[in-house]
Design a protein that fits this description.
The chain is of the alpha/beta class and 331 residues long. Helices cover 34% and strands 15% of the residues. It has one domain: Alpha-Beta Barrel (TIM Barrel). Strand 8, helix 8 and strand 9 form a beta-alpha-beta unit. Flavin mononucleotide (FMN) binds next to strand 4 and helix 10.
Length: 331
């Protein structure tokens, strides 16, 4: 039976335990200087690495500008990213970047010209290669949460009539087409992953999509939600959220490892997720903001500060105002 402390091998690389820090934009750190990434990001991720997380996935980074050292890829940002990767490596953590195909401010993907899609594809490719050069162990393409790649993948949202719309192979093409070239340009153990939801918009469609991504060379899948958050129902004895259940549905359909997520806030939940084989890695988001030592504490069986699920850290707000940061370590 796998345990929370059991290493997991992905593409020949051993992730030292089953705890994955989920990608979370650190909204209050933006605007500290002319470069997007700054020393506050460096300290934030160093703390996660020092405190035992087996896998750290950085917050979403928009690939726009990756080929031109612009946007989130200025030389100053890249210097910080290289230090984040180096810090994580020095603590034995596996560290990956999450790559977004665009932000919700982009115009509707149905209005992109074929040339615009190809240009973005080029940046999705360059960003992955650059991430490898900066010292990251892998990248996760962000097909979740209604953002640009999610809109390409979802059969309801994508109404394109060129080779990037229609059949599921076409809806994934913006990323799957570039995977062979990325693979050629990075080391053999570089992890190529994707974050997606089960419903694209149906479960059947999502399962077929996951299988297709696996067949195209995706090494790991992080399962969250797609255009909307599923509401269930889930089997009574499952004991986790409908989003976490999506991870289990996808896990049973593919052979690549799955990161399960959503609402995992206690050591008991993380252990149960892994021991029941509902997922291969326990994805932890807000609980890591409530207590940056969450991973170390649950691995060592020592008390931690609980996330009280107040949702104050939710999208586009200040996660450093987490009320749990003032609580004693009690759980
Ligand atoms: C402040 C904040 C920022 C987030 N940013 C991202 C992101 O950049 N990319 C992403 O895929 N998910 C993002 N998420 C979603 C988390 O990765 C995670 O799926 C969600 O918080 C549910 O997990 P949890 O219950 O363990 O927090 C963010 C969540 C929060 C709270």
């Amino acid at each position: 039976m796998p345990e929370i402390t059991t290493p997991l091998t992905v593409r020949g690389r051993a992730i030292k335990n089953r705890i994955a820090m989920l990608p979370m934009v650190t909204f209050p750190f933006i605007g500290d200087g002319e470069d997007y990434y700054n020393d506050r990001h460096e300290r934030h991720y160093a703390r996660a690495a020092e405190n035992g997380a087996g896998l750290i996935i950085l917050q979403s980074t928009n690939v726009a500008g990756a080929g031109r050292e612009q946007g989130m890829w200025t030389p100053g940002s890249q210097a910080i990213l290289a230090r984040i990767a180096e810090n994580a490596r020095s603590h034995g953590a596996t560290v990956m970047m999450q790559l977004a195909g665009g932000s919700d401010r982009d115009k509707d993907v149905n209005q992109w010209s074929t040339e615009e899609v190809r240009a973005r594809q080029d940046e999705l490719k360059r960003a992955a290669i650059r991430a490898a050069e900066l010292g990251f162990h892998g990248v996760e393409y962000h097909f979740a949460h209604g953002f640009t790649l999610c809109r390409f993948m979802d059969a309801g949202a994508n109404r394109r009539t060129d080779e990037y719309g229609g059949a599921l192979e076409n809806r994934c093409r913006i990323v799957t087409d570039i995977l062979p070239e990325v693979r050629e340009r990075v080391s053999d153990d570089f992890i190529l992953s994707a974050r997606m939801g089960e419903f694209t918009p149906t479960s059947q469609e999502g399962v077929a999509t996951a299988r297709h991504l696996e067949s195209c060379g995706i090494d790991m899948l992080s399962v969250s939600f797609g255009m909307t958050v599923p509401e269930g129902p889930v089997p009574d004895d499952f004991g986790f959220s409908p989003v976490t259940h999506s991870g289990y549905v996808i896990k049973r359909a593919v052979t690549v490892p799955i990161i399960g997520a959503y609402g995992i806030r206690t050591g008991e939940q993380a252990r149960r997720l892994i021991e029941n084989r509902y997922a291969d890695l326990a994805g932890i988001g807000r609980a890591m903001l409530a207590d940056p030592r969450f991973a170390a504490n649950i691995l060592n069986g020592t008390p931690y500060r609980p996330c009280i699920a107040c949702k104050r850290c939710s999208w586009f707000t200040d996660n450093t105002r987490c009320p749990s940061l003032k609580l004693p370590e009690t759980v």
